[in-house]
Design a protein that fits this description.
9% strand; 340 residues; single chain; 5-stranded antiparallel sheet; alpha+beta; 5 strands
């Protein structure tokens, strides 16, 4: 398949030791991401309360550096963590961290200068500080927003910028991304109703990452989407909410079946995508559930290129659980690079 011409239809359907004797946990992408999340969870409330430490910029930069190092250790594990490392942090922190992983990958795919990638990552980490205290409550709410909550959501981009500026943040690219990450290509977004070329290029990347991560997260008010369907949804939304040139780029960066996606095989087995394959539709997978004998004692590699191990469809975590797939331990599939 030519991914430059991808279409919506294409998206259907004991510590381990390395060869040198060193603990591979030291090179765990998941451990770095969890450390980044814990540090962010301690720091952002201080920014929101106007109590940021004098070195807040350098502390945030160190957190962004942890994200970059995690992606460097293993980009596949970092992407899988978006789906399988969801319960260890509050939603507000987890979503920002997940978005930071995606924008880092998008920045690399666009071959952006290192400083632009860092500004973009920092913007992802801090984009929702303006509604941080209420974010989890809104996440858990299945009812329609009241007028006060809607006003808070519509104001959070500008409030986030004001809080960051009050904390001493002056990076224009960072602040522009935070301000504009809810603008839509057709001008229907907020807070300034900008459209098309009026939206800063880096902010368009952040908007795309933000929306993808929101779609695949477990939320009370909207049905969780399987990753391939979330990507298709963004592709269908191209030039309405997101830049039509960027949605296919996200698919190229993550793959049609992003690593970590649960898939059902033609023989009924449930597997998890462990690594991208040579073809976008035939990733490397590890079976975790047999329809006849139940959960497998250990994951088993399957070749999805032909025969009974071809992919029938993708599943959300809840759908996989309903089929009795066991909760996934990331280390089971990715070894020490996914160690907690």
């Amino acid at each position: 398949m030519n991914l430059d011409k991808v279409t919506a239809a294409d998206l259907q359907p004991g510590l381990p030791m390395d060869d040198s004797g060193h603990s591979s946990v030291q090179r765990s992408a998941v451990r770095k991401l969890n450390a980044a999340g814990q540090q962010l969870d301690a720091l952002l409330p201080l920014v929101e309360q106007g109590m940021a430490p004098p070195d807040v910029a350098s502390q945030l930069d160190a957190i962004a550096s942890l994200v970059a190092r995690a992606v460097m250790v293993d980009a596949d594990v970092a992407v899988a963590s978006i789906l399988h490392n969801q319960q260890r942090l509050p939603y507000s922190i987890r979503h920002s961290l997940n978005s930071a992983i995606v924008v880092h990958l998008l920045g690399q795919a666009r071959q952006l200068p290192a400083q632009d990638v860092r500004s973009l990552t920092l913007a992802a980490l801090t984009m929702n500080v303006g509604m941080l205290a209420q974010h989890q409550r809104l996440q858990d709410c299945s009812a329609e927003l009241c007028s006060d909550d809607r006003a808070m959501v519509l104001a959070h981009c500008e409030r986030s910028v004001a809080l960051l500026q009050a904390a001493g943040i002056s990076d224009t690219r960072w602040l522009e991304c935070v301000l504009h990450h809810h603008e839509n290509e057709d001008g229907s977004g907020y807070p300034l109703r900008k459209s098309g070329a009026q939206i800063p290029p880096l902010a368009r990347l952040l908007a795309l990452a933000d929306r993808y991560c929101a779609r695949v997260s477990e939320r009370a008010y909207r049905k969780t989407m399987a990753p391939n369907l979330a990507l298709r949804d963004l592709l269908l939304d191209a030039n309405v909410t997101v830049d039509g040139n960027l949605a296919p780029m996200l698919i190229r960066a993550l793959g049609i079946y992003p690593v970590g996606t649960y898939v059902r095989l033609l023989n009924g087995e449930v597997a998890v995508v462990a690594k991208r394959g040579l073809q976008s539709t035939t990733p490397q997978v590890e079976a975790v559930l047999c329809p006849r004998s139940g959960p497998l004692a250990r994951s088993e590699p399957r070749d999805t290129r032909a025969g009974v191990h071809g992919i029938r469809d993708a599943l959300t975590t809840a759908q996989a659980a309903a089929l009795q797939a066991p909760p996934l331990r990331m280390e089971q599939v990715w070894g020490g690079r996914a160690a907690l």
